[in-house]
Write a structure and sequence with these properties.
This protein is mainly alpha-helical. It is built from 24 helices and 2 strands. It has a domain of 265 residues: MetI-like (MetI-like fold), CATH 1.10.3720. It is 72% helix and 1% strand. Helix 2 crosses helix 15 and helix 14 packs across helix 18.
């Protein structure tokens, strides 16, 4: 028999196929040039700011003795205890609820799954303070349901509920993905051995999802302990480390103290990231390429129970959004409930609202328009070409933003770009630096989305183009990009919405002319104008939802023309 020819990887084909000098030079500039520029961006936008922040710790008064004195002080231990308590409580509340919600979406036949899924994503489309504002309108001193909390909503209870609302969709996305990767053969084997539903869950479902549960716990803990927007709005006298770092830098100009707290907040994020990466490798070794898709059998009693639980959770999430939007449209809560648009008259607040909204639209649009091609191109080159040591360094730098909280990154930018001796200091306070910050901060999830799509493409595409002496850049533009349009649209949506709602990093970088909408929400609430804060937060939510819907409709139209080959008969 005649053996079939074996396709060679793209990098091997490049060594053996003769290339024209212009095509070879173009490929070299495309591969090495883009990688070097991406590496430079990550060094300037991540590595050097982190080093600048860590170097500020040395500036603490009395050096190491001063650091130890601060870490052993009663105030620091009180702040640390509060932060850990609220973070662990948020994990204990959010992860079990998100697991049940994800189980209802993936392992039941309940109606309205799309509606429930859409509702669960609403917290991602608004700044984190929206939940705190809604809780104040519901349970605050003038709230309609203030009797529900005898000791008041301000403090631990308010922070816990606000953090639960904000972190729920993040945990849900991880758990939905894990529950959707079940192997039907394991469930068939369990049923054939006479195991009931509980034993099947304990012996099959839980072992397959426990790594995802741990990852969700790490993410929720890190996001909670580093978030200061919710504690600032509804924390009252219950103060946490993230709020202390924010006040040290913005309010008291204690940069060394802020850097010290930022360094401390970096530790749990790095530990969680390292352990999660280790557990991902363990989980990956258990996934079989021959796994069959599992479809849960119908069970009326189970589905009825899951529908009640998921419906209650969805109603709670939707209620906070509705209350915040309604509060922005009510004349004077709770005494005059007539509808009014006076809270949207931001000119009464010095026009900061509309200026901030326009700045946020500009920032989100530029971040998505610039970040999407940059991140996708970098992911393509790292996945489809070989660059030796440069690839290893670049992969490490691309993973690092996931382990750096926004608060820590913002502090690093302050200490690095606002340094008098930095020639790039002119960027500080401008939209350009904020775009760099957003692209770097949200790079890792966006790159993972792009890489997942690229790994579905066969390497023979690049090998064929090289054998035909077609420049790699041409293949990338004419073949790879059209095929991966769904991933490109998702990356664009993620970057736009995340930049529109981001607070933690950008609050240290704006100037009076470049104030952002999410930051203005915090400032308006701090000045006592809660109605205007609710209006601006609702405007951000509406904008993010509309853009997401438009991108969804656009993707459906584009996919009919560019992805028809996926459904075409062989």
């Amino acid at each position: 028999m005649t053996s079939m020819p074996i396709a060679r990887p793209a990098h091997e084909a490049a060594k053996t196929e003769p290339r024209g000098p212009q095509a070879a030079m173009l490929d070299l500039l495309f591969t090495r040039g883009v990688k070097l520029l991406m590496g430079l961006l990550l060094v300037l936008g991540l590595a050097l700011p982190l080093l600048a922040m860590l170097s500020k710790v040395v500036g603490v008064e009395n050096g190491l003795a001063g650091v130890w004195a601060y870490l052993s002080s009663a105030r620091f231990l009180w702040l640390l205890g509060n932060s850990v308590k609220v973070s662990l409580s948020t994990v204990a509340l959010v992860v079990p609820l998100a697991y049940v919600f994800a189980y209802a979406l993936q392992r039941s036949w309940i109606p309205g799954k799309r509606v429930l899924r859409s509702i669960s994503l609403l917290p991602l489309m608004a700044p984190s303070m929206l939940s705190a504002i809604a809780l104040i309108y519901l349970f605050g001193n003038q709230g309609l349901l203030k009797s529900w909390f005898a000791e008041g909503i301000y403090g631990f209870s308010g922070i816990l509920l606000g953090q639960a609302f904000y972190n729920f969709p993040m945990a849900l996305m991880i758990l939905v993905s894990a529950l959707g990767m079940a192997d039907a053969r394991l469930y068939d084997a369990s049923i054939s051995m006479g195991a009931n539903h509980w034993k099947t869950f304990v012996n099959v479902t839980w072992p397959g999802t426990r790594y995802a549960v741990f990852a969700a716990c790490c993410l929720v803990f890190t996001q909670t302990i580093t978030n200061f927007g919710i504690p600032v709005v509804i924390g009252g006298d219950y103060q946490v480390l993230a709020m202390e770092a924010y006040k040290s830098v913005v309010g008291q100009q204690k940069f060394s103290e802020g850097a010290l707290i930022g360094s401390i907040l970096l530790v749990p994020a790095l530990i969680s990231f390292a352990v999660d990466a280790w557990m991902r490798r363990l989980r990956g070794s258990q996934v079989s390429s021959q796994a069959a898709t599992y479809v849960a059998p119908r069970n009326r009693s189970r589905d009825a129970l899951l529908l009640v639980i998921a419906g209650t959770i969805g109603l709670a999430l939707l209620s906070l959004v509705v209350v915040a939007v309604a509060a922005s449209l009510i004349n004077f809560w709770p005494y005059d409930l007539s509808l009014s648009l006076r809270h949207y008259d931001f000119e009464a607040s010095g026009d900061v609202g509309w200026l901030a909204y326009r700045n946020s639209l500009t920032l989100a649009s530029l971040t998505a328009l610039i970040g999407t091609p940059v991140i996708f191109t970098c992911a393509y080159l790292m996945e489809k070409t070989r660059g030796g040591w440069l690839d290893g360094v670049l992969r490490l730098l691309c993973l690092l933003p996931m382990a750096v909280p926004g608060l820590v990154m913002g502090l690093g930018y302050v200490f690095f770009f606002n340094h008098p001796g930095n020639p790039l200091g002119g960027l500080y306070g401008g939209i350009a630096l904020m775009v760099v910050c957003c692209v770097v901060r949200f790079l890792t999830p966006a790159q993972m989305t792009a890489t997942t799509a690229l790994r579905q493409l066969n390497d023979e595409i690049e090998a064929a183009s090289l054998s035909l002496k077609v420049p790699l850049l041409t293949t990338f533009g004419r073949v790879t990009v059209p095929i991966c349009l769904p991933a490109l649209i998702e990356v664009f949506r993620y970057l736009f919405v995340s930049s529109m709602t981001s607070v933690s990093a950008l609050i240290f970088l704006y100037s009076p002319d470049t104030v952002l909408a999410a930051v203005a929400v915090l400032n308006l609430d701090d000045s006592g104008n809660v109605g205007a804060a609710a209006a601006l937060a609702s405007l951000i939510l509406l904008t993010s939802a509309c853009v997401s819907l438009l991108l969804y409709l656009l993707s459906r139209g584009l996919l009919k023309h560019t992805q028809h080959w996926r459904s075409a008969p062989v």
